[in-house]
Amino acid sequence: MDIASIIKSRARETYDLHRQYVNPQLVRVLEVLGFNRNYTSAKGARLIDENGREVLDFLSGFGVFGIGRNHPLVAQVLRDMMETGSPSMVQMDVGIVSGLLAESLARIAPGDLESVFFTNSGTEGVEGALKFARQATKKTKVVYCDRAFHGLTLGALSVNGTEEFRERNEPLLPGCVPVPFNDLGALESALSDRDVAAFIVEPIQGKGVFIPDDDYLPGVRRLCDKYGALLIADEVQTGLGRTGRMFAVNHWDVVPDLLVVSKALSGGYIPVGAIITRREIYSKVFDSMDRCFAHSNTFGQNNLAMAAGLATLHVIEQDNLVERSARMGKFLINGLEELAGRYELLHEIRGKGLMIGIQFGAPESFTLKTGWKLLHKMNGDLFCQMITIPLLEKHDILTQVAGHGIDTVKILPPLIIDNADADCFLEAMDKVLKDAHKFPSSAWTTIKNLGLRTAKTA
């Protein structure tokens, strides 16, 4: 079986195959937006489409490709791992590679988090963390934040604060209570009956890149201790250097009780995730020999995933990518703030490291305000496509909106980007914003027509 030849000979069928066998609605979305590039190769911070055009990837698979795409060291480690012929997933045994990765994660985790359970994804990590918290505390209630995103399986969905994902799935897990993000008073009220197993929170919310006040997470830690609830930090997107620290909680010197990681740990090759927790909590779940499988999975400790995780952590540390993320993030944020001073549609820049939200808002000038109101009356999610579409179409830069119902574009570049990449993005944003500030213009007409086509085909 020559997989390279098969892919090459049938590459032009990609969208037809997905339309017929996978997700035709996603294909429609990509075609309407002009995002159907049919990428054929990738390296580092760039994707290459079937026409040979290079695209600067400022989405990085929603944060998966922290070390860039197709990193040669990780690829070599995976080849070496396969060539060892070592046993994997014996189940009635434990493996050296998973032990080594657990040791490495415990070494970089904050505080006394030293017990590791491996998962296949972020949402599975959240599911496991919720189970661990409920079993360890013998309580069932869980508190979560409005606008939170923790995954789409039913348990994780029960602590999602985004209504568009929850609809059609009710009733969800009982005893899950929402509170506003960044509101210590609301959290204390929710915890005050001492019947809460855990509070789960993204240190920086992914849907919109909302950053808490400096006293919020320390206050959360204090309240969880006061009322006997465990603190779960969902670092699936924010972890492993994304925010300019190894973990986002490090910005506030907060040690959670359970920390969930995934995405970037994979190196972009093999799905992998982990729950990192305190031994005391772990021991309350796996508290006897007959409960050694109190929580388990089939593929969590497979050797390729464990090797990918080890290689990824090696690259992050060897190439100083955490420091690089902080430095390049500051460079981009400063550049975007300078643009915000010149363009009235650009209201706010939020971010830490290379997790940045670009917030747009209603303009002051009458003509632009007319266009803004027209688009939002037509479709509340339409405006940001006037930024993301030309970034890709005219400047070969891939970005996307940060979530439904918020006029925010989020960028998650690979941690390996350099000043030239950042300058390329800022120059492109300058040109796109300049076009967006002309009304009427072809940019506004294009987006209006997009909205009309979307409404007709919905």
Automatic annotation (TrEMBL):
Keywords for this protein: Aminotransferase, Pyridoxal phosphate, Transferase
InterPro entries: Aminotrans_3, Aminotrans_3_PPA_site, Class-III_PLP-dep_AT, PyrdxlP-dep_Trfase, PyrdxlP-dep_Trfase_major, PyrdxlP-dep_Trfase_small
Bilayer-crossing regions: none
GO molecular function list: identical protein binding; pyridoxal phosphate binding; transaminase activity
Cofactor(s) this protein cannot do without: pyridoxal 5'-phosphate
CDD domains assigned: OAT_like (cd00610)
Keyword match Transferase: yes
Pfam family name, one: Aminotran_3
Assigned protein family: Belongs to the class-III pyridoxal-phosphate-dependent aminotransferase family.
Database matches in PANTHER family: AMINOTRANSFERASE CLASS III, BLR3010 PROTEIN
Listed name of the protein: Aspartate aminotransferase family protein
Originating organism: Candidatus Desulfacyla euxinica
